[in-house]
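Task 17 of the worksheet. Students: predict the tertiary structure of the chain below and write it out as structure tokens. Keep your answer in the requested format; marks are given for formatting as well as content.
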Amino acid sequence: MHNKPASRRGLPDICFFQVQPFQISCRQQAVISNRFDERKADMPRARKGAARHRAKKRILKAVKGYRGAAGRHYRQAKETLVRATVNAYKDRKRRKRDFRGLWIIRLSAACRQRGLRYSQFINGCKKAGIGLNRKMLSEIAIADPAGFDAIVEAVQSSAA
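Model answer:
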């Protein structure tokens, strides 16, 4: 506020602090804010009654059939549902991996019966321009062995 030292302004040297205008204590600030809140509080406090009830019903309906508290108590049900949805997402991805592995095992067995390794068979399919995927090839190997023999012949002729 003042750039001059206290002694040059005509004040004694003991008075070295500067008084700031409108400086109030924390307690006074709290009283002022409470008065403001009292004027604001014309309406009752909004509670999430219906929305919370709907959310609880939705979660408890989703965990219907779960064992013990996981199917009855809201807090346990909520945690269980989170874990269940995470595992469901993860296992949807895993199912695709498992089926691909199954098709490869089936194809490998069918190829070995005909004197060919799986890797050679897939490489030959690419060279021969056979655009069937592993799922279709494994189904042909199981349901139509004669048709699979024809595919193996085409693969062997393209490899040679």
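Marker's comment: The CA atoms of residues 80 and 86 lie 10 Å apart. The longest helix spans residues 74-113.
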